Amino acid sequence: ADEPTSALDVTVQKKILDHLHMLTDSLGTAVLFITHDLGLAAERAQHIVVMYKGQVVESGPSLEVLQHPQHPYTKRLVAAAPSLASQRIISVKEHGGDATAVMEHAVNEDSLKKGEAIITVDHLIKEFKLPRKKEMFKAVDDVSFSIKKGTTLAIVGESGSGKSTVANMVLKLLEPTAGTVTYDGRDISGFKGKELLDFRRHVQPVFQNPYGSLDPMYSIYRSIEEPLRIHGIGDKKSRAKRVRELIDMVELPESVMNRYPNELSGGQRQRIAIARAMALDPDVIVCDEAVSALDVLVQDQVLRLLNDLQAEKGLSYLFITHDLAVVRQIADEVVVMQHGKLVEHATTDEVFDHPKKQYTRDLLDAIPGGKLQLGLD
Ligand code: ADP
Ligand code: MG
Asked: 236-249 vs 266-278: helix axis angle to the nearest 10?
């Protein structure tokens, strides 16, 4: 079984793997299970073999490998596996060569309750007309929440639950059927001209597939410079300086400037997409499955980068994902969606420690490796 469930929601993944287990168990079939998710490997296999650059670097009983990884690569994999992480990433910044934790995370319960909202979504509804159907289809059904300044709100739910539709309404790429989106206290529905341009400047998207959102004919330099040029910021020289800063900010070498998207790896492309989104110094970034296509090590790097940028610049994130394990690493608050409806909204700790709805519990139970007690932190 070669990555048989990697593209699936956790709940569907669990169903399929439980079924596979039931069949192979009753038939006495041996399974060679190939995955990039260590948590999943540990949960589903008795024996793990870790490969790196074409070679086996470690092998042994699953729990043994996870609890006492020997090879540096295995150690990195264990540290990065989202399904094994138990807490939010803490941003650490260098201070005069001394690594000091600048902030546990700027966000605490207090700022979540009393903090000022940057985006508010109020009784949002989106209906679509389906072909050959009389009644309209409600993709988003009465959803309300707000994102506090400098915090991350995650929307989770199975595919088709309406997450992207909400994101696209927040980005004003899609008009709501009813309800409102407010940005910094102003209803965005009436934005046009200068106000709309201003909104576009401050609320930026990062999508799942950077290969689709970066123009293949544009050099990396041109892709990052484009938003600056469109918004008429600086002259040629100051823009060139800014592009260099942005490439440095996402920790890529300056030499990527002259390359094209197809010459970069998936993780590098996603960094470029983040650099482009950061070009105009936004307040809000909407990440729609922005790390879902990346392997765990690269995913971990990008999540850390997003966390560092938030700590540095006070950015707010609307973070959309079908992967609850990632949520634990990045979000302050979680909205759970099912069939277009908001079924639960609470702080990340509350959702993970005391989920109120059965649907949320099902999502949590389906996280691979979630029940393994590894004593990792
Ligand atoms: P998610 O991002 O949670 O996977 P989406 O927001 O993309 O879900 O979609 C929610 C539902 O709305 C799905 O059933 C999808 O098929 C439907 N949908 C999304 N966009 C359109 C559209 N333009 N026309 C018709 N149906 C749509
Ligand atoms: Mg989506």
From this structure: 130
Given a cut of 60, is residue 328 above it in pLDDT?
yes
pLDDT digits (tens, 9 = 90+) for 165-219: 999 999 999 999 999 999 999 999 999 999 999 999 999 999 887 667 788 899 9
Q: How far is the CA of 6 from the centre of ligand 1 (A)?
A: 21
Q: What is the pTM of this model?
A: 0.77
Residue 171 token pair:
């980005």
Ligand approaching nearest to the C-alpha of 339: 1
Looking at domain 99-365, its CATH class is alpha beta
Q: Up-side HSE of residue 184: CA atoms within 13 Å toward CB?
A: 11
Q: Which ligand ends up closest to the CA of 139? A: 1
**Pocket (CB within 6 angstroms of ligand 1):** 128, 137, 139, 157, 159-165
Residue 220 contacts residue 261 (beta carbons within 8 Å): yes
- Among protein residues, the one with the nearest Cα to ligand 1's atom 22 is 128
CA 264 to chain centre: 20
Ligand 1 centroid–CA 287 distance in Å is: 17
Tens of pLDDT, residue by residue over 363-376, are 888 877 655 544 44
Q: Checking DSSP bridges between strand 92-95 and strand 98-101, what pairing results, if any?
A: antiparallel
Q: pLDDT tens across 9-50, in order?
A: 777 888 888 889 889 888 889 999 988 777 788 888 889 999
* 149 DSSP assignment: T
Domain limits of the chain?
10-84, 99-365
| CA-nearest residue, atom 18 of ligand 1 | 139
